[in-house]
Hints:
The chain is built from 10 helices and 16 strands. The protein is an alpha/beta fold and 338 residues long. It has 2 domains: 2-125 and 273-336, Alpha-Beta Complex (Quinone Oxidoreductase, Chain A, domain 1), CATH 3.90.180; 129-268, NAD(P)-binding Rossmann-like Domain (Rossmann fold), CATH 3.40.50.
Amino acid sequence: xxxxxxTRYLPISDPQSLVDVEIAQPEASGHDLLVxxxxxxxxxxxxxxxxxxxxxxxxxxxxxxxxxxxxxxxGADVTLFKVGDPVFYAGSITRPGANSEYHLxxxxxxxxxxxxxDFPQAAALPLTAITAWEAMFDRLRIxxxxxDAGKSVLIIGGAGGVGSIGIQLAKVLAxxxxxxxxxxxxxxxxxxxxxxxxxxxxxGDIPAQLRALGFxxxxxxxxxxxxxxHFNAMAEAIAPQGTICTIVENTGPLAxxxxxxxxxxxxxxxxxxxxxxxxxxxxxxHRLLNEVARLIDAGKLRTTVGDNLGTINAANLRRAHAxxxxxxxxxxxxxxxx
Length: 338
């Protein structure tokens, strides 16, 4: 089957950084679905895994952790899906990715594709929707039923993939007052179009901009961009007994003691945790994605596609990686069809 893979970890400007390859088609067993991939999306995790390093793979490594497609075979233990079902999912970082014609994925982290979306529109959602949902409702313990309505959340990186769905979840389900960061007129307009009440510039003084809007502190912070750079601002902005959640790994020590006097919390979100450790609640991601699909089909949430880059091939994937590494994308980049 066709796939896009790598054997060496190279700068994205190198044509060998991602190449078109032929690999064996896998077979479904256990809880696995074999999915015919119709569309994929690209995330910062793809660029981080692909980043240059002194390592060589014996066989092509396939990346890609966002896909939508059709179930063509099921393992013996599958109970949630049948052949012919359209699905969307992010997959597991510990298994081969979805940048291939056919892909194996555990049914317990797969959702039924929103009926109102085509495959590219659906492929834009899984990884970011899981990340934003878990960060907000599992890690920060915000009520998805509106019990925290009126409280404030600062979303750093509002126009990115996770921020784009995070703004919607914060408004539609939680009823929060949303302050999103955006540094350009087009990204500011994007955030407001998704429901942000206010926008501020993450290149500026975040606490000062919040005070100018009338927020001495915010109840929650969701950091979807550069933890190292924004930690001091987050520590100053967070309310006493509030909580900060980040999805971006730090490269240096963080001054966690700055949170002590406020009894403020700091938590991590990694959407691969449940699949990586096969946690007892792994099926929560299946249920989560089905709920996102329901909300999409009910018109309460919308897809977050920023641009469709065309056919799934190495050249277009290299372009997508380059755009992500440039740091100026809005929403999600998708590709569809081989």
